[in-house]
Write a structure and sequence with these properties.
Helix content is 71%, strand content 0%. The protein has 296 residues and is mainly alpha-helical. It has 4 domains: 1-68, 434 Repressor (Amino-terminal Domain) (Orthogonal Bundle), CATH 1.10.260.40; 81-150; 152-220; 222-296. The longest helix is centred in the first third of the chain and has 21 residues, at 70-90. The chain is elongated, with a radius of gyration of 28 Å. The protein starts with a helix and ends with a helix. The model has no long low-confidence stretch (mean pLDDT 79).
Length: 296
């Protein structure tokens, strides 16, 4: 297709329709709707400033209007989509980023970016205790990743790990499962699995095993070490000290959904042992509120 006035107008019209935008909305206050209609029909040649304005309004590169083949169109659209998607991803605007990734015909790079976006969005949901929503996004991330050649085993290992985390929430941790998962290439740090494994031993009353696991990981982190100290105090019925440590931990911004739920349950248990049922009820309510959020 030659770069005639008519072909430029046709490409502007095609881009406007793809953006689901009316002529009046595209024209805005910069040009009249009648002028835009004349440009689209090939009756008028737009100035460079007008082309730049139209391209910015449509969110496409101005060079798209001068393209002479469908292949060039696709390259322009993909390059523009990748630039926009990366910027939106960096600013954590995941829903908008996903829309951009879906805005062009199937492309391996953008499909992998869509999978990454859905994974990141799922992690945000997990931080807000919205586990059902997170599970759906992880499922979508897996589906997208399976359609592209860019997905690596490390990405699927991360999905496996996070899906396991969701299944562990509000339940006893399965140490055997954790042991298997810890060998999977994953962006989730191995120390997380070691931590969960130690919690599993602690829940089963296997204190020596839990302490052995903890001592094998000296870089476990201050919050997690504090948690084990609080659990030990509670086990020895030093309840006031345990409650103080648990409450301090609960306010930490670094904790994820598993720890938040467990600590609320631990504080409830300490108050029950102190026979302070009013305080126990308060933390039982908090715990059940977290469980309600799991289903969102």
């Amino acid at each position: 297709m030659k770069n005639t006035t008519k072909s430029i107008g046709e490409r502007i019209r095609e881009a406007r329709l793809r953006a689901d935008m009316t002529q009046a909305k595209l024209a805005g206050d910069f040009i009249s709707r009648n002028m835009l209609s004349m440009i689209e029909s090939g009756e008028a040649m737009p100035y460079v400033e007008t082309l730049e304005y139209i391209a910015n309004r449509l969110g496409v590169p101005a060079g798209l209007f001068f393209s002479d083949s469908e292949e060039t169109d696709a390259l322009y659209l993909k390059a523009d989509a990748v630039t926009k998607a990366k910027a939106l991803f960096a600013s954590r605007q995941y829903a908008d980023c996903a829309d951009v990734c879906r805005s062009v015909p199937f492309d391996d790079e953008l499909t992998m970016m869509l999978a990454e976006v859905q994974l990141a969005d799922a992690v945000c949901d997990m931080d807000r205790f919205m586990l059902a929503s997170a599970a759906e996004k992880l499922k979508s991330a897996r589906s997208a990743a399976e359609r592209t050649v860019y997905a690596k085993s490390e990405f699927f290992g991360t999905l496996d790990a996070l899906e396991a985390f969701i299944s562990f929430a509000a339940k006893d941790v399965d140490g055997d499962t954790v042991a298997r998962l810890s060998s999977v290439p994953s962006r989730v740090p191995a120390e997380v699995f070691v931590y969960l494994s130690a919690l599993s031993y602690l829940d089963r009353g296997e204190i020596d095993a839990a302490e052995t696991v903890i001592s094998s990981l000296p870089y476990l982190g201050a919050d997690r070490m504090k948690y084990f100290k609080a659990k030990s105090l509670a086990r020895d019925f030093k309840l006031t000290q345990a409650i103080e440590l648990f409450k301090d931990l609960y306010e930490s911004e670094n904790l994820g959904f598993i720890s938040k739920y467990r600590i609320a349950a631990d504080i409830e248990g300490c108050y029950e042992n102190k026979r302070d049922f009013e305080s126990a009820y308060k933390y039982s309510t908090i715990k059940h509120h977290i469980l309600e959020l799991f289903t969102k």
